[in-house]
Amino acid sequence: MSKFMNSMRGILQRSFTLGLSILMAILVGSIIMLIDNHNPIEVYRLLLEGAFGSTRGLFITMQRATPLIFTAIASTLAFRTGVFNVGVEGQFFIGAIVGTWVGYAFQMPAVIHLPLTLLAGFIGGAAWAYFPTVMRQKLGVNEIITTIMTNYIATFLISYLTNYPMRASATTPETPPVQVTARLPQFVEISKEFGKGSQAHVGIFIALAVVVIMWFIFRRTKLGYEWRMVGLSHMFSEFGGVNLNRTFISGMLVSGGIAGLGGIVEILGVWREYKNLFAVGFGFRGNLASLLGGQTVIGSTVAAIFYGGMESGALSLEWGAGVPRQLIDIIVGLVIFFMAAEGMWDFLRRRKAAAKSGGDAPTAGQTPAKPAEKTEAAGQAAQAK
Amino acid sequence: MDGSVLLDILSRYVFNIANIQGMLRLATPVVLAGLCALITDRAGILNIAGEGMILLGAWFAVAASYFFGSSMMGLLGGIVAGLVVGALFALFSLKFRAHIIVMGIAINIFADAATIFLTRSVFGVAGGFTDPKIVGFGAIEIPFIKDIPILGELLSGYTFIVYLTWFLVAATALFLYRTPWGFHLRAVGENPEAAETMGINVQRIRFLAVMASGVFAALAGVYLSLGHLQGYVDKMAAGRGFIGMAVNTFGGGAPLGVFLSSLLFGFVDMLGFRLQAERIIPIYFVSMMPYIVTLAALTYFTIRRENARKRAATKKA
Predict the structure, then answer these.
(1) Do B105 and A287 touch (CB under 8 A)?
(2) Which helix (H) or strand (E) holds A267?
(3) β-strands B158-159, B232-233 pairing
(4) How far out from the chain centre does Cα B263 lie?
(5) Which of A137, A292, B146, B235 could form a disulfide with B156 if both were Cys (CB 3.0 to 4.6 A apart)?
(6) For residue B23, how far is the Cα from the chain centroid?
(7) Are B95 and A150 an interchain contact pair (Cβ–Cβ within 8 Å)?
(8) What is the pLDDT of residues B78-117, one digit of tens each?
(9) Which CATH architecture has domain A44-323?
(10) Distance from A204 to chain B by nearest Cα, in Å?
(11) CB < 8 Å to B298, chain A
(12) Is B102 on the interface with A (CB under 8 A)?
């Protein structure tokens, strides 16, 4: 019971920080809008209305959120095994291109073709994660630098593929369209009314299935337990009973695979062919969504849907009020700044605690690592008195 | 490919003054991005925000040059932008303990969006901004040196930022290896606990290093928007912030190493343009090479370090 209370307290604390961060980002965002001669209240109203206020808006939200759910879950899985997978971006691309190839190059019935294409995307993403993973685990090479490098190699490789061997159009670098048997239907194709004006597609169900499976694995299976333990062991370094290498590598490969699956789902549902560099930034936004959601499966899913909603709202804002849609990335960037700044909130908390205990501020200079912070907290506390 | 073809390619693409000049020009923003990565890396900080810092530096340089009508004001505008971003980055990641990579990604996404937003709201155009009122840097001919055959052509006729970059490479090397501050910086990067015990203020050194990295990145941006082009184009950093990390790794964290490996990148860039024009091989493989070489170098250095560590351990035993 007390464990439950503790975890509830953790969630509450995190939600509180997130709420405050969003509030501060909204405030800073408002200042930017005022300077830019827009009425912030009006802009935020349009933003929410665009994202969640109409059926069409909701469907566009769904469309934008689908790839982000994959990349956010991929990031979360990597975080849990103790790795910052900046490579989600490249794995998403590689999964998309490998899947696209299987999607257009073969002819077979849909029952085989669609699953095979999705599997190809998963394998493509996992394969792209393999090298940085092994480098990290066997040699201890920093995975952040290696995945940044492999992201670039991925973009050049794909530029080559879409410009030369896989190119189908004389005017633009893009592949042939995937066969009808490999496509994920859009809602508007199933029924004329449902999902009109959007390209939302049934890939959202695949995304949600991945969420449920990952949640189940983490909560209920030995594998999920081992992944979490490996993540912790990167911090505590001492560990027994689990084959560390194998568990770690499997975690990273599945993370890459989920990213790749996201890439091919986006192709099969929305684009139906690979346009060179069709979706730069889904990987990085997935990293951010995972962080916003506290690196938990459910949290990052909610954050990805919210992020998708904000993008959908920003699109309608751009069409409707002429406010550049980049505004939303500015605001999300600000939310991350404020949320990541644990120390800023500690500082407020400590100040409150110090005020409560009668200005009994910690002595300055006791811990050499952060003397400036402590003295400042003490000084502030004294002023508050 | 037989020998004569290779010779032909070498003489056309490598031993050719125009090409070497092109290489030096294209390497300049990479050197600056490399110094940005170097100075933080040496302080033990993994700064992936270089890309965003370059964009902000480039944008504010153009804005300042446009409004004040002077390239030096543009330079100043870029530097101030770099200092401000660097200071904010340092404040949040060092003092408020935000995760450094998280901050890096957030700054990159923020800067990308903010510069596009600013171009649209300040100048009312989308995609980029050029205007005759933007004053860029002109080529500088160095007296006497410009008259020396070959050497004159190689060393003279670049913009101010190119010379500033060469100076900064030398200055950074002197700073790192010949001044007490440089010694402190390296100590902080190599062993922060020991540095702390020696009485070095680790936090302050890191704070200053991050601010310096902001200035280096901003200078790369200034070069792109006022030296290379005269105007701002969305996403004009084009990955140079990350390439900076690559050249720093490849150059072994030394200023001269950064300079030389940037030349390699500049050369590949230049070669890419040429090969594209002549349609010999797809440029994408050429563009990919530096990253593959960096990965190989990273693997090699790590294996060598591991082996040395193992040898030391067995000797002790």
Answers:
(1) yes
(2) none
(3) unpaired
(4) 12
(5) B146
(6) 14
(7) no
(8) 999 999 999 999 999 898 888 888 889 889 989 999 999 9
(9) Orthogonal Bundle (1.10)
(10) 25
(11) 135, 141, 145-146, 149
(12) yes
What residue spans of chain A are helical by DSSP H? Answer: 2-35, 40-52, 55-80, 88-105, 110-134, 143-163, 187-190, 203-220, 222-236, 244-266, 282-292, 297-321, 327-340, 342-356, 371-384
Contact between A268 and A116 (Cβ < 8 Å): no
- The position carrying tokens 């390239």 is B71
Q: Measured between CA atoms, how close is B72 to chain A, in angstroms?
A: 27
Cβ-Cβ pairs closer than 8 A, A with B, add up to 139
pLDDT band at B266 (very low <50, low <70, confident <90, very high): confident
Of the ranges B23-37, B57-71, B286-300, which one carries the lowest mean pLDDT score? B286-300
Nearest Cα to Cα of residue A62 among A196, A188, A191, A198: A198
Dihedral sign for Cα atoms in the order B77, B80, B86, B88 = negative
Question: Hey, what amino acid is at A147?
Answer: T
Per-residue confidence band for B13, with pLDDT thresholds at 50, 70 and 90:
low
Query: Do B34 and B251 contact (CB within 8 A), yes or no?
Result: yes
Q: Which amino acid is at A9?
A: R
Instruction: Tell me the per-residue pLDDT of A40-98, one tens digit each, with 9 for 90 and over.
Output: 888 888 888 888 888 888 999 999 999 999 999 999 999 888 888 899 999 999 999 99
Window from A230-244, B172-186, B241-255 with minimum mean pLDDT: A230-244
* B contact residues 41-60, partner A, Cβ 8 Å cutoff: 46, 48
- Provide the 3-class DSSP secondary structure of residue A9: helix
Give the start-to-end residue ranges of the domains of chain A. 44-323, 345-384
A136: closest chain B residue by CA: B299
* A84–B109 C-beta distance less than 8 A: no
Name the residue with tokens 């190689």. Answer: B154
User: Which among B22, B38, B27, B24 has a CA at the least distance from the CA of B215?
Assistant: B38
B-chain residues near A94 (CB < 8 A)? none
| Mean of all residue pLDDT scores within chain B | 87
Segment holding B232, helix H or strand E: strand B232-233
DSSP for B106-167, please give it: HHHHHHHHHHHHHIIIII--SSEE--TT---PPEEPPTTGGGSTTHHHHHSSEEHHHHHHHH
Measured CA to CA, the distance from residue B108 to residue B31 in angstroms comes to: 20
Rounded Cα–Cα distance for residues A93 and A158 (Å): 8
Would the CB atoms of B121 and A369 count as touching at under 8 Å?
no
Closest residue in A to B120 (Cα) is A324
pLDDT at A2: 64
Closest CA to A260 of A138, A166, A150: A150
In this structure, are residues A84 and A312 in contact, taking their beta carbons and an 8 Å threshold? Answer: no
Summarised one tens digit per residue, pLDDT across range A172-194 is 888 899 999 999 999 888 887 77
Of B104, B99, B85, B208, residue with least CA distance to A343? B99
> How near does any CA of chain A get to the CA of B149, in Å?
39
Kindly give the interhelix angle for A244-266 and A203-220, rounded to the nearest 10 degrees.
Answer: 160
B83 touches chain A (CB under 8 A): no
Task: Indicate yes or no: CB of A146 within 8 angstroms of CB of B202.
Answer: no
pLDDT tens-digit series, residues A218-232: 988 888 888 888 877
